[in-house]
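Hi W., the zinc ion complex you wanted:
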Amino acid sequence: MPSEPHYLSLAELLRQAREAASSGERARAEELYRQVVDRSPANTEGWLGLAAVVEDPVEREACYRRVREIDPGNMPAAAHLATSGEAEIQPRCAFHPEVVTTLRCSQCGQPVCARCARPFPVGQLCPICVRERRPEAYRPNPMQLLAAGGAAFGVAGVAGLLAAFIVGWGMIVSLLAGPVAGSALSQVALAAGGRKRGPAVQAVVGLGAALGCLIGGLLVFGAGVVFHLPFLLFAGLAVASAVAWLR
Ligand SMILES: [Zn+2]
Ligand SMILES: [Zn+2]
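Structure:
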């Protein structure tokens, strides 16, 4: 039999589907109802018809749920879902579909597993809601990032120049001065960047500070700075502790 002409109207498709279903042509009815819902995804009659003729119980269930989504008051769908084993279909974690869970995010309501849920004063939250609740201090805007990185670059450049005069005294001085410089750097970056912290701020400040130190060192020692161990120790400690302070 040639495939169904595409110009059949929806009403005609439905009529043929009903006819096939009532005369026991299950496969043909299924095919026709699929065409109906393909063409008209919100057609509840199509979904109900399909539910009645599909063989897979899971798919039948899905058809009835689709009807309920489209029309929450639909009686046949509600009746079917009430008597079917829907209650046994347990919710699964929205982030780990393989994990059955009874927990729900108390903010957005989606199911989450124990591994994803985080306790908050308002209840258990899913990872997405946790991210949204992050304090304002962890959400810098691009200008603040630029300011923090730029300030770190400038201060580190000066620190690099000054350090050139003290690192000659040896590794111990570097060991002590590096973290002090890093702490000061982080304070300047916080002040310049609207007191924002977190990974993005850490990244730009780390980069700015490393570049600044390098340029300061280059100005004093020339290319030899890359072999000047006390200076490298100072710069490394300064950058690392600045980044650590901005967590
Ligand atoms: Zn949530
Ligand atoms: Zn999960």
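The longest strand covers residues 118-120.

W.
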